[in-house]
């Protein structure tokens, strides 16, 4: 019979739509303002006792809790409004102390039966939710340079071991190493030795100014792997730091060859976040130089808090901040800020071995910071801004070693309580393998986010209503059927976006609006064809059939090409633009489904298998 | 084929349309070359801070306050509403910039001012984005050309890409001429215009191909006129629905996507026009004929006959 779908086809369509409705449903439940509580390390787990203590503290503060629950390793406390949430955060932070992280969060209220099937609401982008977005660039030249410095000392040791006399091993500015010999024979022996042991070197020999040189470059693959390592190391450190900041659902991700994206939804104090994230602070522990020490083996540094005061230290570093396994800020007996440090076993041994022979000598703690300044240079007549990195090392404490130190000790001489807790945090989270610089930053306030959502939703509603009215007027019954399909399209779009846990951004909402406008296109194409076929004298049922059939290839071609443009947009876009590309692509796919199959099913149900004289189109 | 549709003589006006397109293109290219685009922060790099006032803000007062606080090169303007102020600053970046600006403004006594947005884009990032944007656009055009050449025929593909390039140039030209800020969302809109205009062009091309195969008699111009007339109602209705939602977006969507909505509005209007007058016109100019679109002959001897 003409224009009847077989039962299985109708059932399939109903099934897809029901599935869509199910997965779109979580978006209908509003989110709760919540605070999330989690331990900074594994020994500090959140348990029921802690939760009871926290909830009691909140209630004592006169605040109302909507619900509190103990999750796998963390606790979640829900409130009815954001004001209560903010007040409660302060109370909780004080109640639990430094071993726990308290984060502001928006908790979904999706019922359990929906979460059980993997359904959840769409994520909101930073422009809708408020928060901070950073793009960081890792200083790769520095990362490679650090490795080259290590090679310099390795090569020296190797040549000494093999009794090959060299005159100098230097790390040149262009990223190569130069080894200077006084005879070509030694040079050639060294060449074959290094070739054998270091397959990652590209070595060339040359003679100049009466000396014999080896020039060593790193292979491209080695440079790449050093860079990869630096990025991975930095990602880990940044993740640790972000976790320490207490942000719910942060994003820390590599982007391109040398960049890292950090997104912190809900964070308002961008400056604080940035200080913690971007800090390349590290510590070095060194002994003070003896008065008769060779000046080639010592270096002189300034004190950080006492301008003018200097101290001469040994060049040898006992340990650095990377040997620190835990660090806690506290106050000493005089109320001065201090950081209690625990070292890992290797660090503890090193510290023990060094201090054993150095009791009554003084040990300095150097605060090392990578910084950069912008310098304007004139290159080829054009002013170019260049970033010049530099390292600042200052002494924060110089204290007499009273007894042999082990893996536990404390450092003092810090500027204030803020600095001690920041230093403790940085030591816990680990140092960055290479310095990073901020190349992009975007902060969106919460009120702007809320406003953006409101504006977006309003424009979707109004645009949608206008299209529905227009279609109903233009195509009457068919227009109404198309409208039903259009509504279902929106449900499916939201469902797919939720399933992919895609992020909804403001341009994403614009994409939905645009999809609504363009989704009717397929229906318009079909209806225009049906009208034409009717004019050509085809009976209504055949006209419907022919209209759908003949419009199909057109719809297919037209949408594939648009999809192509959307995919390219996705590939090259970042952040919000990606969000737009995602909604546009998903919208194209769902609109083809609803416009072709759903509308057809509806038309079949309305008109199929009946004798018709006229169509309301 | 349909004889009941009224056939309009679209191609009769093709000389006028060519002139019209040529003028628009000259103005656009001229505007881009002479005035240039007013590129947004995304592409130039720099800092901006958006603050919200309770009452309508006094721009001169804000400028004075900022100058007094040492922000000499600040550009102050309203953003959407008179209570909403956008402050653009040079390329130096300071993590506390937003707070500093806010403090400078609140020093005037009004503590209800709120920091809404604070953005910084490094000059390098902006430059890369500019390159990437242009590259992405070219890549999109190329991929589409390949697809259309594969699905239709080379002349159609040239026609389609000519129409797209026409649309992109005019939309970008519009932004240059009226010095509307061109940011990342506008670039996204331009790519969406490519998608939309293409959609339109494909629908028309599809009908042209069908009619070339089905109409026994009739010159290429007649075939094109018939095809354009048959698709006219669809072209108009789709444009109207899309324009309806875009107007809703432009009016109610807020300042942040204003440029986006504007680019699409211009793009949809020009895209609708170009699918009729640029793509089809290009086909006439390239001398499209029935033979271009006939399915390749299948019978063996016919192939042999063609051999000289």
TrEMBL record, chain A:
Keyword entries, A-Z: Cell membrane, Membrane, Protein transport, Translocation, Transmembrane, Transmembrane helix, Transport
Every Protein export membrane protein SecD/SecF C-terminal domain range: 439-604
Domain SecD export protein N-terminal TM: 2-104
Pfam assignment, any one: Sec_GG
Subcellular location, principal: membrane
Claim: Transmembrane is one of the keywords in the record: yes
Function of the molecule: Part of the Sec protein translocase complex. Interacts with the SecYEG preprotein conducting channel. SecDF uses the proton motive force (PMF) to complete protein translocation after the ATP-dependent function of SecA.
Subunit text: Forms a complex with SecF. Part of the essential Sec protein translocation apparatus which comprises SecA, SecYEG and auxiliary proteins SecDF-YajC and YidC.
Family: Belongs to the SecD/SecF family. SecD subfamily.
PANTHER family in UniProt: PROTEIN TRANSLOCASE SUBUNIT SECD (PTHR30081:SF1), PROTEIN-EXPORT MEMBRANE PROTEIN SEC (PTHR30081)
Protein name as it appears in the record: Protein translocase subunit SecD
From TrEMBL, chain B:
SUPFAM superfamilies referenced in this protein's UniProt entry, alphabetically: Multidrug efflux transporter AcrB transmembrane domain (SSF82866)
Span of domain Protein export membrane protein SecD/SecF C-terminal: 109-286
A Gene Ontology cellular-component term: plasma membrane
GO biological process: intracellular protein transmembrane transport; protein targeting; protein transport by the Sec complex
Cell compartment(s), UniProt: Cell membrane
Pfam family, one: Sec_GG
Alphabetized GO MF terms: protein-transporting ATPase activity
TM region positions: 16-37, 133-150, 157-178, 184-205, 236-254, 260-284
InterPro entries according to UniProt: SecD/SecF_arch_bac, SecD/SecF_bac, SecD/SecF_CS, SecD_SecF_C, SecD_SecF_C_bact, SecF_bac
Domain of life of the source: Bacteria
Keyword line: Cell membrane, Membrane, Protein transport, Translocation, Transmembrane, Transmembrane helix, Transport
Keyword Cell inner membrane in record: no
Topology of this chain in the membrane: Multi-pass membrane protein
Family listed: Belongs to the SecD/SecF family. SecF subfamily.
Role noted for this protein: Part of the Sec protein translocase complex. Interacts with the SecYEG preprotein conducting channel. SecDF uses the proton motive force (PMF) to complete protein translocation after the ATP-dependent function of SecA.
Cited HAMAP family: SecF_B
PANTHER family per record: PROTEIN TRANSLOCASE SUBUNIT SECF, PROTEIN-EXPORT MEMBRANE PROTEIN SEC
Subunit description: Forms a complex with SecD. Part of the essential Sec protein translocation apparatus which comprises SecA, SecYEG and auxiliary proteins SecDF-YajC and YidC.
Name of the protein described by the UniProt record: Protein-export membrane protein SecF
Taxon lineage: Bacteria, Pseudomonadati, Pseudomonadota, Gammaproteobacteria, Oceanospirillales
